[in-house]
Specification:
Blueprint (H helix, E strand, L loop, with lengths): L1 E9 L2 E10 L5 E5 L6 H8 L7 E5 L5 E4 L14 H6 L4 H17 L4 H16 L5 H11 L15 H14 L4 E5 L7 H12 L4 E5 L3 H7 L2 E6 L4 E6 L2 H38 L5 H20 L25 E9 L5 E10 L4 E5 L6 H9 L6 E6 L5 E4 L12 H5 L6 H10 L16 H15 L3 E5 L7 H13 L3 E5 L3 H7 L3 E4 L24 H4 L4 H7 L8
Parallel strand pairs: 3-7, 3-8, 5-6, 6-7, 12-16, 12-17, 14-15, 15-16
Antiparallel strand pairs: 1-2, 1-4, 8-9, 10-11, 10-13
Helix pairs in contact: 3-4, 5-6, 9-10, 15-16
Length: 561
């Protein structure tokens, strides 16, 4: 892939200014840069959805696979099974029909070189799908992504996290020569993330991945494409994300030192020129030297470099308006199942202590988000009860950002009787929404912008129980750090679902509720039942929420001590 002299702007806002880069076949490239630098825009250009003002990108003659950051499946796919949906990534029947049609045309026009070329291209594509191993490769991907148990389920029956994994499985199964992955790990559990990282490292095609997951980038990539929002340039660095950060820090330090030296020289010349101008007319020697130095000064000023702009970061502080009771929440003998679905929880019991940081983990589809929805009252238990403590106030950050109304503006989504418009504007500016930005409809925002609005809304509620479902999705590492530091210092209670080990360690989790997969083991009544004790998780333990940990820790059908 080769990009030459890319220029793109929206009005007065420059995105790319004469950008150039070269990537080789089978490169695994992390695309990084601050939010708004133009990373996803680059994907849209490659996909043909965005037109450049000038320049071009030369793409290899490969099929292209794309995983967007916001995954939606068309309504017409709701009634098809997971197997059928993933298998459609290699549209054999459709291609075979086209091939047969071209052969029929060839019978009428046997000398047509255009028809022969289309036949060769179609046949090459079909051959690349490896028909002999079609079912084997499909089943292997489903099993490794822990989706084999869902292969006969319809898409409409799946959770948001499961749908994301299914869409990812389909992209991997396509066997495209060029993969574009936009935040691919947002909904992946730790075990699946390991498989995907290994799969991509050994992938025979080229992979471009936009991700805020530093560990994932370090595992997968051999090059890093930095999109610089300050200079509007792009540069390819050899090595993974950590290596890029080291090289970039060295370059920036060297450039800052060069500019500092230039500024010293300019100051010295400026002072000399000022003295020469102020001297008596009779001092012709000094005046002459002043003219000479003035020319040197003009040249130095023209050559003076510009330090890269430091962009604003999210600023936040989480303070509960009032304190809850010592036991803010108690779950007693909770059981739940969706209509016509298996029982997810059977007589689950636990209680929270004020100030506790409580983590819920497990593979996709085991019921983590469901448990949060039960706690906030969006779902009702099949049996059992949830008891809320005195003075309890809750704020809920949903994984799919359902707490936002797409039809309303940013300001309307965070409006509260407790705050004036001026106060709300101030809070929104802390989340990087300024001036007329606050009148944008949620529907037109990027996933990262929507996440910032949702987080702002949570803070404004000043609740003493915060419930978070994958709170680091869509946020860059710097913002993740800010959120983690605030949650660590938060005096209220936190219940959180997260597959981000580094973030979890930063928050300071006190207990873990790990929901095992139902297919791992079962008792006579089909309900997983395993006892264990609580302990504060170590970083090594957190980074290994794998099957071994699931089997070691436990949880359903027991009191949490």
């Amino acid at each position: 892939m080769k990009a030459s002299h890319l220029h793109l702007s929206y009005g007065t806002k420059i995105v790319y200014d004469d950008c150039n880069f070269n990537l080789e076949n089978r490169d695994k490239v992390g695309i990084v840069g601050v939010n708004g630098a133009g990373k996803t825009t680059l994907f849209r250009i490659i996909l043909g959805e965005q037109t450049l003002d000038d320049g071009k990108i030369e793409l290899p003659s490969h099929r292209l696979g794309y995983l967007p950051q916001e995954i939606t499946t068309p309504p017409e796919h709701d009634d098809i099974t997971v197997w059928e949906y993933v298998a459609s990534g290699r549209p054999i029947d459709e291609l075979q029909e086209k091939l047969n049609s071209e052969y029929e045309k060839l019978a009428k026009y046997p000398d047509s070189s255009a028809i022969l070329q289309r036949i060769n291209e179609l046949q090459d594509t079909i051959d690349s799908y490896d028909l002999l191993n079609f079912d084997y490769e499909l089943l292997k991907i489903l099993e490794k992504m822990n989706l084999a148990d869902l292969m006969d389920r319809k898409l409409q029956e799946l959770s948001g996290g499961q749908k994301s994994k299914v869409a990812f499985a389909r992209v991997l199964f396509e066997n495209a020569g060029l993969l574009l992955l936009d935040e691919p790990t947002n909904h992946l559990d730790v075990e699946t993330k390991r498989f995907v990282a290994n799969f991509l490292r050994n992938y025979q095609g080229t992979v471009l991945v936009i991700s805020h997951d530093i560990d994932f980038l370090d595992e997968v990539t051999n090059k890093t494409l930095f999109v610089n929002k300050s200079t509007h340039k792009m540069k390819v660095y050899r090595g993974n994300y950590s290596e890029f950060r080291r090289q970039y820090a060295e370059e920036k330090a060297a450039e800052d030192a060069r500019i500092t030296e230039q500024e010293r020289e300019i100051k010295r010349l400026s002072e000399f020129v000022a003295r020469a101008r102020a001297t008596k007319r009779s001092n012709t020697a000094l005046i002459g030297m002043g003219h000479q130095r003035e020319k040197v000064l003009a040249k130095k000023l023209a050559e003076l470099g510009e330090r890269e702009k430091e962009y604003a970061r999210v600023s936040m502080r989480i303070d509960p308006a009032k304190q809850s009771s010592k036991t803010p929440l108690e779950v007693q003998n909770l059981s739940f199942a969706y209509p016509d679905g298996p029982e997810l929880y059977h007589q689950l019991s636990f209680s929270l202590t004020r100030g506790e940081k409580f983590l819920i983990v497990g593979e996709n589809g085991v019921g983590k988000s469901t448990l949060l929805k039960l706690i906030v009252g969006e779902l009702a238990p099949t049996s059992g009860s949830i008891i809320y403590g005195h003075n309890l106030t809750t704020a809920y950050y949903a994984q799919e950002l359902e707490i936002l109304d797409d039809r309303r503006t940013i300001l309307e989504n965070v409006s509260s009787y407790d705050f004036t418009d001026t106060e709300l504007r101030g809070m929104l500016s802390n989340f990087l929404f300024y001036d007329d930005d606050i009148y944008k409809k949620i529907a037109v925002l990027s996933p990262g912008e929507k996440a910032r609005v949702a987080l702002c809304k949570i803070l404004l509620q000043r609740a003493n129980l915060i419930i978070l479902d994958e709170p680091t999705n869509h946020f860059d590492p710097e913002t993740q750090k800010i959120i983690g530091e605030n949650l660590k210092d938060y005096t209220g209670t936190v219940v959180m679902v997260s597959h981000n080990p580094a973030f979890v360690e930063q928050v300071g989790i006190t207990r873990m509720l790990i929901v095992p997969s139902r297919h791992r083991e079962s008792s006579e009544d089909g309900v997983i039942s395993k006892r264990s004790t609580f302990q504060k998780p170590s970083l090594a333990l957190i980074k290994n929420y794998s099957r071994e940990l699931l089997e070691y820790y436990y949880y359903l059908n027991s009191d949490l001590v």
